[in-house]
Amino acid sequence: MNILLLGPQGAGKGTQAARISLEYEVPHVATGDILRAAIAAETELGLRVKPIVEGGGLVPDELMVELIRERLGRSDAREGFILDGFPRTLPQAEALDDMLVEIGRALTIVLAIQVSDDVARERMLGRGRSDDTPETIDRRLALYHQQTEPLFEHYRARGRFVPIHGDRTENEVFAEIQRALEQASEA
Ligand code: AMP
Q1: Model confidence over 2-11: pLDDT tens digits?
Q2: Whose CA is nearest to atom 19 of ligand 1?
């Protein structure tokens, strides 16, 4: 199972990815979590990305691609993975395509959790993360529409793109994801 999870911040990606990871025994690779850990540990990467993450911007593609290349190369990702928060731009998606070809793997499915901006905004304000101010939330939603939504077309053209209704309870969303994963693994 090589799973991609797309969706704006506040869509519930992290929660759903954690459940998929448990149920299907694949590592949950969340780029936001990796970056926040690097910031907390004050590593070179952390110091570099701190102002970007705190301002609601996007970390440069080259940095993110190297980070993912390293992470997917680890032994626990050999049998599969769930990617949460990557790719967020077309260059990242193209780099991931190349990487997968190199290692002879293909995406099983691309899930896109869809919620309205109002719902995403409300949920982000509710979780109280330090990078969740009204200004950064608006910036991130705008970046999502500009930079990440074009990936829908990229993956639709390659098949295996499945939109998921995110404006429902956690259990309902997870049930829909499970149905999509079952269909994809039968295909
Ligand atoms: P997240 O936890 O996915 O909401 O990510 C938190 C922040 O980390 C984002 O607002 C970005 O600043 C940064 N980030 C995470 N993943 C990426 C990515 N794939 N490309 C660029 N920036 C990223």
Answers
A1: 999 999 999 9
A2: 86
Contact indicator for 136, 56 with CB cutoff of 8 Å:
yes
Give residue 11 CA to ligand 1 midpoint distance, Å. 14
| CA of residue 80 to ligand 1 center, whole Å | 21
Of the candidates 103, 97, 112, the one whose C-alpha atom is nearest the C-alpha of residue 149 is: 112
CA nearest to 109, candidates 76, 80, 148: 80
Q: Is 1 helix (H, G, I), strand (E, B) or coil?
A: coil
What is the value of pTM for the model shown? 0.96
pLDDT tens per residue, range 142-161: 999 999 999 999 999 998 89
Note whether 162 and 111 are within 8 A (CB).
Answer: yes
**From ligand 1's centre to the CA of 140, what distance in Å?**
9
Identify the residues whose C-beta falls under 6 Å from ligand 1: 9, 31-32, 35, 52-53, 56-59, 64, 85-88, 92, 140
Element (H, E) at 69: helix 61-72
Please return the burial class of 48, using the count of CB atoms within 10 Å of its CB with bins 0-12, 13-18 and 19+.
middle
